[in-house]
Fold these 4 entries.
Entry 1:
Amino acid sequence: MATQTPKNYSAIGKRPVRHDGADKVTGKAQYGADLNLPRMLFGKVLRSPHAHARIKSIDLSAALAHPEVKAIVTSSDLSPLPDKPAEVGEDLYANMKYVRDRILASDKVLFKGHPVAAIAANGLHEAEELLSLIKVEYEVLESVTDVESAMSENAPILHGTIRFASMSGDEVHGSNIASHDQYILGDINEGFKKADLTIEREYRTKTVHQGYIEPQNGTASWRSDGHVTIWCSSQGHFGIRDQVSTILGLPVSKVTIVPMEIGGGFGGKLPCYLEPLAALLSKKTGTPVKMFMTRSEVIEASGPTSGSFVRVKIGVTNDGKITAAKGYLAFEAGAFPGSPIGGATACMLSPYDIENLQLDGYDVVDNKPKTTAYRGPGAPIGALAVETVIDEIAEKLKIDPVDLRLLNAAKEGTRRSDGVVNGKIGMIELSEIVKNHDHYQTPLEEVEGKLRGRGIAFGYWRNNTGPAACVATVTPDGAVNLSEGSVDVGGSRTAIAQQLAEVLSIPVEDVNPQVADTDSIGYTSVTGGSGVAFKSGWAAFEAAQEVKKEMLKRASLVWDAKEDEVEYADGIAQHKSDPELKLTFKEIAAASNGTGGPIVGSAGVNPRGVGGSFAAMLVDVEVDEETGKTTILRCTPFTDVGKAIHPAYVEGQIQGGTAQGIGWALNEEYFMSDDGKVMNASLLDYRMPTSLDLPMIDPVVVEVFNPGHPFGVRGVGESPLVPPLAAMANALYHATGVRMRELPMSPTAVKKAIDNAKI
């Protein structure tokens, strides 16, 4: 571990056992689908069998007449939403109608699995069987399921309301292009004129899913006073509250979301799916209603990330200096606008200092489920293109690939493609650590008759922040109950508790962190964007400062002294002029009720000072020439985390992102039929890597202190997924001599490429 942090800490940087660990390993932790309430009914969703069709009629008569059907909801039960743009929760929708139609289709279905109606019954299987009583008449329309076809002149149009405005200002009606973003720095034409070498390449990637273990769920109980409580697993219960409020036309004060434990999300559990339906069914029946997806429903009808088409052109001088870079990116948004195109264009060139660049990003709808975030949304696809071209440049110029990156490395003061000027960043430090690492310095062992190669790639994620709240209550025995608003996906409860414990100089084991419901804590933005340890950690830092002030006040009351005569250090309050007067944290807590009442510290923050994170991956592979199968021999990912609050959880985040990147690179994809159906909607057929497919992933934690945070924190959850796609592609090239520019690089694809190269 390399460190540049300014001091050593008592709680931060340690590896305490996570507070929720015992419950999770013993099965006591409560996930969304574990909840059972008295008189509870079960709900199921009727989904479209077609990828694109007009709904001509929905006949509910037979279902309503059946005694086992307790309630049915269709889109007519949702709040009528205006035909205009709006922000709902933390998602920006191009049209409010899309918000409603994503939950239940109204006039058209736009992907196979699109919800059309929902039903409640006494049992889960009963509800599923009773769906067949709902008769829907469809007019089947032509579908389109890849981005290039969706952009073609004769493509079937999903939304008549989309009006695409080009950069020239011309509007195009009847288009699947929802938006066009453009970033320009310098003079792109002059930049390419200065280049001695220019390389331009095209790339294509398929739709992939986040692959979390736990399916989406929601249990709702609607009270007679119009207040609804929903228990669910999500990445942001305040975001779910706001979405449910909008979709049902309720004030946010009438919606309470209780966060359950979450079995993975990676960005895919930011939107709501079942929660509004369970709420409406509960309203109609007067009893709680529980709903959860099957695995096939998760793959077919929750948000994956985009398939894409990308073209990148980079020019360099003979000594390796990048003079210009140009990118064209078209991303699938699925059924409704909102692909992660912004993450790709903002991050793909950010590891480098490039004076002249132009990036054009297109958000394109097609007949697949609406995309959602996936760990550094968009950035891995952008990095795939840039980092493989950089690798090709290094080879042609005979420059060490890390030296080439160091020559062009972004630094403090560099302006990124999105216009942001970098503060203190760690690209140079990270690159130097990669170059000096044993893995990079040790030559790849060659074995006769084996195709072996080594690949390196770098990546960047900008990291996010947002509003966050914490309340710290000191108990009479000297413990601290810490309520916070960030859903815990990867051990953040403990990381936030460590930051509070650091300020108070108390053992982190004496902190009891809990994720509070939306009625019990201030608004906290989602667990996403690698922002939780940053923003909620900052809220805990501020709450701890309030507790410390109270501790000083209580000690001064005991000693009948002025507050400024008392100091607090190492968990002890001490009189400045009489060192014999000392009170420990626990002693002050024990006397708190007699010296002013309970000691409570609270904070609501919306901190700035976010620090972007750079990552790299070094990987050695062996390719079987007969089958095309790729075996990973050694894998070393590097990530600048600012300061590792809990190093074990940081290492786990790096390993997890790397594993997902390997799966995305080598195997994962949606197989689509000609009529728009997902053909591999199960984990038997959707090929995610298992432990048998992965080597020991040996993470290197780099710490370049972020001056924009009290403890130097940078996000770590997303940047590790950015380099693997390109690193694997570069390694495969150096093993086989064949450049793979389409993902996944499956055994079949690799074997075909090797065979074609021999012709």
Entry 2:
Amino acid sequence: MKILTHNLGFPRIGANRELKKAVEGYWAGRVEESELLKTAHRLRVENWRSQATLGIDLVPSNDFSLYDQVLDMTCILGNLPERFQWASETVTLEQRFQLARGGQQSDMVPCEMKKWFDTNYHYIVPEFSRHSTFRLADTKPVQEFGEALQAGIRTKPVLLGPLTYLALGKSKDRFDRFEHLNSILPIYEELLSQLAQKGAEWVQIDEPILVQDLPENIRGLFLPTYQKLTGAAPGLKLLLATYFGELRENLPVVASLPVQAVHLDCVRGGAELPAWIEALPKSMNLSLGIVNGRNIWKTDFAPALDRIEHTLRAIDAERLFLAPSCSLLHVPISLRQEGKLARDLYAWLAFAEEKLDEIQNLARLAVGNGDLSVLHRNEIALQSRKVSARSRREELRQELAKLQTLPLGRQSPFEVRKTVQREKLGLPVLPVTTIGSFPQTPELRSVRAGYKKGQINSVVYERYIEQEIATAIALQERVGLDVFVHGEFERNDMVEYFGEQLEGFAFTANGWVQSYGTRCVKPPIIFGDVWRPHPMTVRWSTYAQSLTKFPVKGMLTGPITMIQWSFVRDDQPHSETAMQIAYALREEVLELEKNGISVIQIDEPALREGLPLRRADAAAYLAWAVRSFQACFTGVSDGTQIHTHMCYSEFPDIIDAIKAMDADVISIEASRSEMELIEFFVDYINDIGLGIYDVHSPAVPTVEFMEKLLRKAVNGLSADKIWVNPDCGLKTRRWEEVTPALQNLVRAAQHVRNGLLKESLVAS
């Protein structure tokens, strides 16, 4: 008796981020297209063989991407927006990247980028209009299945489902994009037919929108859609994959579909397992996502085996599959490269390869074929974590309990604070600032790495960082910004930098995870109670402020973003961990204020990312998220201006929470959407910084382009509450791009200011 094992997706970037280096080399002109494609092929084969070696029965293919799997589906369907002037039969590599990064022409704006459900992964948003046309323009799933066959592995191709693809998209002319369903289904049918002809036995179709609230008319589209798809290639078996939550009212819809297997996220949706077992048709297999694909803690085998054995009492082992809860895209590849982690912490963790090993062990143990010593070692590791003194600090918890009796937030309402701050800071209408970071050059990264390795002493390192800050301050004065930043040259990552200075965090040497495109991050591990042993940013902020009479922002990362962009302990509610971080940050805020920093930015770009996928669950999350943000600046004076930054958020979902956060200024991404977000902030009384410079594109935006966006903003909102800034930090850009872009940004603001002055004079 055997339980089938499979995987929903594997990390793409390579053990040493080979994909990132190859793609960025291609963009820079150092790597030929043929060399990039050769590297990608090698990584795919390595991934397939690694999973097969670990004993996975159904190894996925087409989970690999040079940028993003949603973008890949856009190219497969030939769904390129008109502005990209695509007229050929197939999509080239250069066109694929233009969709994500924009073209050299200023009107070739890249497609928008959004968070993939409630993860820190970003996807490129498909665009639709009533005039959209579709055709099979890329056979990537078929080609990669063929590659795997040549490598001796019959894979399970993965396709983003048609209804999820449409749901993730954006209608440019308020057209109902689901009306395009009948136009894209023939392309899906053709892909399935080609895969069957190539020899595929199983195809995984991902429909994660089934864990969200869906209108009745969208739910009604699933049955006819899958009736067509299952008829496209008789003999081909379809596995419908859902993940990131419970199906709830969508469960009967999924149970009615004519597919051969359904995947259930048993980590986030395990409470539904009894209902699933009862609803499961006899013709359908059930895949249990029994291992957490989104976090790095070792699986507790005892409750996992209970769930598997409960299922086996209702269905035969031949109908049961085991897998991670979702794609392993969200975790690092392997613990094998983490020899410097503390031994006890190492024993508590499982990365992608270790999670697949857990799947295999659970499959064997559930049917009596497993090694009982594996179960025993699992019990020992988990027990050591429960009793570890490194996890809890009772004196800290007692101190936090006292702090939480303080009233949260500001002393005075925003209207009062704004008057005080305006007099103190002396800012013009439409003040110009940046989000925080400036370019991280290869030389800077090399110096910082040398300092970390002990090859450069602290005196030399600090002198170098001071020089970089001085250069940045001089540039901002020369360009004409109104509120400066120190540039964050001492920081590797906006979360990692703070985590390295807070207790309760641990760090990997090579635990890289893809965030978007070639952007990879090493999420910290929050394993214990969090506290601040010493100041973290005061040294550099006060040095920068000493160089100029203009205000310099103190830059911090907020508690929700620290949580969302870390691997968080799972032995207490996230709300408790967030409040611990918030009070650690509050100590830093008060010390910055004490040292003369009058503008402090507490970034929360991940606030929307953490929003539960169901509306019914949102209020509780937003309540503790807002409380933790307010705790960061409880006790500051009215004259200290608190900023926050959010990017790529669906603001209608969180606008009430943004108001409750009560930051003096919020900066947001607005350029890719061409200011569409303005309508959601019409009755927002606090100040708002509108990003009119897309930092994720290599193109330097013109004065005319940014002026047009800014005038649109002024026409929709009061100029008195608008700030002017880029969409995000500038760390990934080059100085050759940043300097002219900021010059154009300032000129655009000056032009609009002058126009407002003329209008005011005429009116008077």
Entry 3:
Amino acid sequence: MNHTEYLLTVGGLLHDVGKLLYRYNDKRNHSVSGFEFIQKEANIDDMDILEQIHYHHAALLRNAKLKNSSLAYITCIADNISAAADRRKNNEEGWGFVREIALDSIFNRLNENDENKKYPPAMLDKGINYPTSKNIKYSEEFYSKCINNIKNCMRAIEYNENYINSLLEVLEANISFIPSSTSINEIADISLFDHSKTTAAIACCIYQYLEQNNITDYYSELFLKEKEFHNKKAFLLYSIDISGIQDFIYTISTDKALKNLRARSFYIELTMEHIIDELLTTLSLSRANLLYCGGGHAYVILSNTKKTIQMITDIEKEINHWFLENFDTALYIAGGFTPCSANDLKNEPQGSYGDIFKNISNNISQRKSSRYTANDIIKLNHNVADGERECSVCRKTAKLNNNQRCSICEALENFSNDIIYKEFFSITKTAKGLPIPRNKYIVADEKQSLVERMKTDDYVRAYCKNKMYTGNHIACKLWVGDYKNGDTFEELANAANGIAKLGVLRADIDNLGQTFVSGFESAENKDKYVTISRTATFSRKLSIFFKYHINEILTNGKYCTITNKEGERNIAIVYSGGDDVFVVGAWDDVIEFAIDLNDALNAYAQETLTISAGIGIYPQKYPISVMAEQTGELEELSKQYPNKNAVTLFEEGNTYHWDTFINDVLEDKYVKIRDFFESIENKNNHAARGKAFLYRLLELMRNREEKINIARFAYVLARLEPDEEDKQANENYKRFAEKIYSWIKDEKQCRQAITAIYIYIYSIREKE
């Protein structure tokens, strides 16, 4: 990043800081108050930055008499482009600004939703901030707290390019729930953070585009001819995708499977972040230009220059060469891009925004269909060296150590504990650690060891886990789903009630790709909310939910019909990315967590998104690769359910809409079955027969098509009838018999009862 790009990034990020002051107690123009605040409180005296803050609105810029090459002209148009995409008129007429207005939920207009929910005032890392229908107002006290936090953090930052991402972190932590606009004319669903971040990204792209075209008169090009510039293809929307993630994570065979799974999934996540940062560093940009990263996918906004296109092409080739050298064909990265204008990013003309993503998707598909050159294929066919054997973990052919593992699998296993217990992960040039693309290494650090490492030439950058830090080349905090309440499959299985078996859950968002591209389309609103700002905000919200908030959902389990207890789940996260989840744990906790996850997502996204899941139950020593494959198949059955939004348990035929599973299978049939058999549990003459009855009942229900089985069912049921003198028991039996007899006569009810009986049997089976 050259000095001008650094200045533009800082100016773009801080240009609207005066809005905080205005909403607190400073009634002046926010450009003026922001200029004075940054000059005084942040000790920034660089006029190139201060001019951007002072003159980012045309009204002040017009009479400022700045030089034609002032960066204020770039920030002004970048702010306009970002704001035009952010602030779309509300359907209701109004006027003026309301200082205490709350941030609207980004999900209010997603997937044809039409709500008016708000976010309570909060900092980013203070738990899940669910949108609410309550009348929310932001107080002066809240704004005062934000201002003081930012002021204190900024005083600890050195103002050079090494700390640029630290500034980004400070703003994300403090202003993610503050609206960019407080106009009652507009939908205030874009935060001040997202607006400032987008402004900084757009400003740097514009500068690079102008620089390539040898344009230095920003006044004429951007201020006098602003409308013409909005039609120029000055930007590239670029996306990259890592293929082979599932096989890389799950195709392992080892007695330390849980550790290896966690390490491999985290390694993929960190590799993707590293690739993004290498790309941005090479292109002289910051993480402000990163729109989304999660689940092996990323979107970045770049400048449309020959230099940019050549650089991203070269980096892709370099990374894929490294993947071939280290993982054969297991991993591959494919990229795609399309040029776009400011108007395209605002969906003007209508449909142009969706076309950007369609073009990118087509580019990536073409890349994936022809991955390797002829030379690559020849090399792969002659890649086996003498003395190489099959790794006992990943099954790759390589030179093995004494543990019969390849060097990367050995390093991953050694790394697994660090994922849970270490706070920092450094990228180094030569220090021994996990190898990563572009000939770098990952090393886990404590705070003190990181400080010492920062002083060396070997240090490249560092990532923090689930906490905000600032410092020299601190790239960002990584939201990491790192919850675990058990170190081995055996521990997790033995923590279950009843039978000691593992539950495995795989789940992901339905139709996410379609939502990402066209979720804000609406014929009624004429697609006016289809903008890059909303896509970026929605993506960030979803990523935080699955990468970070999932830890809180697991720590504070709510649903407890099976386990009869709230609180910490006996579960370990294997993977939780941008939109999907894989967890392993005690079978009963896994089922209840699936319900918690669905409920939390419904509240978080206002039922605009649905999730489909597969749940399997397995012995402790069952191969993890087979568990992953089979639960993936169960998940796919849920995806085939009408309108999706379903869960499939155990085997084909047990697919239910979430409401049906919760209300009809568990709260109705499971509870009735459990309550009845618990009522006869202490009656010795019926307890043994009760358990045998359940197995017999299952057999008859599974073969209900044979009419004779209905009669047999009635006979078996009659054998449970209690003694005549026990009136209460007789009454309970009568109600239960009538209910269960009605279930077997109805196909849907019978299927639900079978699932409920399975769950109850698992809960009372002795540990084996």
Entry 4:
Amino acid sequence: MSRIIGIDLGTTNSCVAVLDDRGQPTILAAADGERTTPSWVSFSPTGQATVGTRARRQGVTNASSTVFGAKRLIGRKVNADDVSWFARLAPFRIVAAPNGDAWVRVNGVPISPQEIGAHILRRLRQIAEEALGEPVTRAVVTVPAYFDDAQRQATRDAGQIAGLDIVRILNEPTAAALAYGAHRVKEGRRVIAVFDLGGGTFDISIMSVDNGIFEVLATGGDTALGGEDWDRRFLERLVDEIFDQHRVDLTAIPMAMSRLREACEEAKKALSVAQNTTIALPFLANDHNGAPINYELTISRERVEQLTQDLLDRLEAPCTRALADAGLGAGDVEEVLLVGGMTRWPAVQRVVERIYGKKPSKGANPDEVVACGAAAYAGILTGEADYAALLDVTPHDIGIRVGDSGFATVLPRNSMLPVRARRIFATSNDNQKFVSIELFQGESQDVSKNRKLGQITLDDLPPGPAGSVRVELVITVDVESLLSVVARELRTGRQTTVTIRPSGGLSQREIVEIITRRREESTTGGEGDVVSGRVRVTTREHMISTPEPDEPEPGKP
């Protein structure tokens, strides 16, 4: 069988790795020597897609048709606060799919984030095949530990569209710990924290490592916090200052915004090692008199830190909550591993040191360590690498709707997988004929703010006064996060069972249509270029295997 590659599908940059002949993870570079691929996809008017550095360059001349940061949209609803904020300064349009998911519109055609991700995955697959000289069809792909089931399934869907069999979805912090070699330390049980701040997401995982067994004790994070937020905050301030000076709104000039966005990112990188840097953008735009605006600014690291202090403040709460969920104090953590390019920012490192009371480790390239860990885990799956067992946890609470808008937790977050939980409910009406139980995932006490997973209905209940008929609900989650639900009436033993498979927003039929259309339309357009096959969503499929009843909702369990 073909080798299994490891892929870090990142918000800003992506990376692919594989085990070499010595059993060590190695990054696979593109033909031009690039070890990471920008997660950018640019579309021509005919639908031809360019991926990577070439796409990023087109962000200046073809801004409205060049998509970046799609990982922040995958499996998300268009009305989410952070999606709306992202849309404010994005040069491309973010629109609502029929099911409310956040999609992008390019050249008048709506495209799902899964399709954008598939273009990037296909490019990484191409890099791997060119480097290895053999076909590649299987991969371990990493995701933020705090991704919910829908976001994980959407990532799998992207792999299917790209022609990749994603044999395992692996949490990024766990992959990083593997790459650091934490499982090879033999002196006994160690508790480590993996602090992962990438381009678009923040993860914190507390785990113990003991004789090759990784046990995730707790996870936390923020899927709407990353390096791009620092860039955007910097960009917003400069846009405001230019408007104040010249009365020109750059947000209406896509080419100027793209140049300024790139300059902000480069300035941030420069300030990670220097105290001051200069932004120089001649002929950025024209003022109302037609005169060119030659923008130049010298900015200090201190000023950028002041502009982004609230972003730094958001890092602490997930860290302290993860420690509390693990039942540990900061002093119990023996080592903090840094992952993600944004951890190069000195202020971020100071936050880490303040929270945990120790300097973090910097023994690996934060841009490449996750891909290396994915390759290491691929080697474990094929028997090529050191054995290590991974014991993971549920990232979010799983529970049910109670009353009109309440949420009752049945399976708390950070429960070790596999896991089973039981809860008993009673009918709320006399002679109630059936109960319909809705399951949700999330942390809010307002059920409308959590993600609906599915619904289970148990009918033909025996007659009796309210509260006399008791129903047991059993929820089981396996190591692949597959959710099974059983509802059983305790007196008669009558029960119903559903398996709730995560939905990434696209039905299987829609995925097949996308793949079929791409096969029919695709032509080679050079390295990293493909023709995008796109399809509008017109139907939806239920996430559970049995249909929801047409009857009005009964009394709440």
